[in-house]
Write a structure and sequence with these properties.
Length: 374
Amino acid sequence: MKKIVIVTTGLRNGGAERALYQLVIEASKKMEVYVVSLVPPTYYKNDFLDLPISLVDSDSNRFYFIKQLLQLYFLIRRQRPDAVQTWMYHADIFGGLVAKFAGANRIIWGVRSSVLRWGEAKATTLLLVKVGILLSRIIPDAIIFCSRVSLNAHLKIGYDKKKVQLINNSFRESEFHVMTTQSTNQKFFHLGFIGRFDPVKNIPLILQSTSECIHQGVPVRLSMCGTDISSENKNLLNLIRQKNLESHINLCGEVKNLRRLYNSMDLLIVGSLSESFPNVILEAKGCGCMAVSSDVGAAREIIGRYGLIVQSYDPLDFASAIKRIYSFKNRWSPQAWKKLRKKISRDAKLRYSQLAALSAYEQVWFPKGGSGNG
């Protein structure tokens, strides 16, 4: 049986981490998987522990990062995996270096971001990106990007073009699908936002667009979920109060069962200033939900014919796009709308299958006749 060691920066509640979790679920059915998190695993820890894999953890958070790098070194020396896959910048650089010194047979970087501008990404992250320009020629045998936008952005700044591979994110059809018990409540047009409380997610735009829809007579209700998207976040509550939206918004916090939430939505709203591959759009689409999104990352490609791209960050333009989808829905009977949602879901399954993505990863991890660093 093949062995793969996956090194991730962390296991918090985020799109990159969720994509990794879904990949590991499928990989664990075919190979021996070891997962090493460089910071204490939080949100997804128990989910990974429930899988038939080895989650390498340390007994305390003191010097956790250093201890995990040491564990990674000895794990590679002991198990001699066929490949080491790193996931996100910190893991690419630090995990990649340790894998190189440990004599790993094959090292693959996993780049999950396209945010390379000052002010939009942390200074430490941008520093690692700069270091990665040089190390991309030394450490990895291949570099996997999750979107064409991310790949092109890194090539532009000097990443080794001979090593790049594009494998789009995917979703598990068994997890994200149209539910037979989906609500048919026609009183409100249900909007959804899924993301952490972060400037890059552009939450003020989401709230202002919702307010504009209400002023234009669209009976919207907005459900919001994600890290720090709760009534305990005073900054978020102040933004909601400023728009007089208290009675129009449901704050859900961190939600495990996103399938149910996606199925309750009529429309997903994404106003991000920057994304690489917005997983939420694909997951929503898997559940038959259209999206209105800013023109970021792979959003246009994922949405295809089932939603709208807004070229500006003007709330009036977003409200106009939301109103167009609302008017479009009103021309369909509830039964016809359900059939459309199933059609949207089928399109997502055809284009972004998890099994197809795993097959693409396997071709990079275990190339026939290939040789690695060892």
